[in-house]
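pipeline/complex-builder :: batch 7 item 3
reading input block
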Amino acid sequence: MKKKMTMQDIADMSGVTKSTVSRYFNGGYVKDETREKIKSIIEKYNYEPNAFAQSLKAKQSRIIGVIAPCLDSTVTSRTMMAIDDYLRKENYMSLVINTDHDEKLELKYMESLWRMNVDGIILIATQVSEAHCALVKKMDLPVVFVGQKFKDGISILYDDYHAGIKVGELAAEKGHRDIVYIGVMESDQAVGVERKNGILDGLKHKGVTKIELLHADFSFDVAYEKVKKLLMKRIPDMIIAATDRLAFGAYKAIQEKGLRIPEDISLVGFGGYEISSLLTPKLTTIRYDSDTAGYIAAETMSKLLKEEPVPKVQIVGYELLQGDSIKEM
Amino acid sequence: MKKKMTMQDIADMSGVTKSTVSRYFNGGYVKDETREKIKSIIEKYNYEPNAFAQSLKAKQSRIIGVIAPCLDSTVTSRTMMAIDDYLRKENYMSLVINTDHDEKLELKYMESLWRMNVDGIILIATQVSEAHCALVKKMDLPVVFVGQKFKDGISILYDDYHAGIKVGELAAEKGHRDIVYIGVMESDQAVGVERKNGILDGLKHKGVTKIELLHADFSFDVAYEKVKKLLMKRIPDMIIAATDRLAFGAYKAIQEKGLRIPEDISLVGFGGYEISSLLTPKLTTIRYDSDTAGYIAAETMSKLLKEEPVPKVQIVGYELLQGDSIKEM
């Protein structure tokens, strides 16, 4: 399928800004010289202003595409429900597409949604690559990134670094010295890099520099297997898990080994799932405010569509949910 | 927006079957007399066979719409991931829409997806009304219902009634006599009615007829509040929860009251979430095979699109996961 021409393309070829092209089509003020330039580009590429204007009008599909890395993570689900709820009240329909943590699918599905004439895209991103930037630039529709920083556009972020610091400092303050961190791939800037760096820096602030790093994905099963293998070799003071789901995998491996949390090994997670407080012992965890993140993402999208001003970066809060899974050494 | 005319409409007006109309457009064999009839209808309504054929062709969007009652239930998420996984391998993209358990939105979104030219719709339904039947009849595209029986079409079902019987019989066999069931709304035929009736019949088989019914929705919070209120009045032998999530709400209320499971009160759920086995005590629960349900739903859709034969009803299995949350009275 041939890519459709965007306002940005016309702007680039005319040497003007996109908003000038937009004014041209919407009958706003444009200098005569500029008007001629835009007109000649449009004629050269066989665009009829009317058809284009029509397509702009038809573009108000009242549909927002939501691209998610999975459909079965508690935090992502909560974020999507909040997005959906806000948008429905504003009379938008949200269409969710799952990428299964595949960056290429993120790009492909953004293009698909664009061709389907959605009004905007909210991307619960696993990473932000150059390809993401190029694609967003090409598409003339609003895109909001959730969970990963998009330097050329609008992002809603969790404060992964500082949450990590809090947990790292806590671990050290409680006297833990032999610490294992079970994390996710570094292509995920927020969870894989920022969160981990926060933890390492938090530990370092308190003089702890020895830490063993285990690499998992986002699944329960892989975390379970990794921790099981670890415990066959040795029992560290503490396991810090990058997500509650990984912590659940650790629970299972620890319980199967006949060890007690926190007496034999301390455990902490990130996520603050409802269920984490029902475990025995209660999991100590960071709760990200994903309801707020979803709400803000949808609100920001709604404002962008109304051409109201929005901040470039919005950071939502977190809190430490004190459980009983960390011992005092 | 004016509704588009469907092959079914043409079939109805011509007094022939839809497949005859399909053959007409695809150049298959149609009796001369019938051919004339179809032709006159098409001309009367200003349809050009070519345009129609074109729209048929354009219809192959390789997009399947998936309509779900929520995005944050473990069973639904698991089903959607399995659907998505199968369809992606078959080079389809699935678009998920959340209805928030609202029947009117189910209907509205089916229409929306139809107008977006999806190739088919998989509906993880909360209920099946006359309006559903009428709409599916009107749309000339395959629809697969998951979780609720659709008498005029294709359904993938969980065996809610027999799973209910199993739990009801188990409860009675373990000697429980004073039982509280916390369930969901009866508009949900599968969970609200079939599952409940199975439980009641299972208990009845074993001579237990006294049961108090509490009504919740699908949320953790409402279940927690209902059980909290119950426990302020009295402590039954056992609580049977319609879903694991409701059981989690019960756990919280029971723990807060300082009661022990199962010593002071037995508890059982339906769902078989990963996490249910990490609770202390482990929750005894029915695990529905939602991976298989999702797989079968997607496979059935794929077959329908290839015009291969499919069964009208397919029932996926369940198993009792034995935990430690039911005492022997």
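note: The first strand of chain A starts at residue 63 and ends at 68.
queue -> next item
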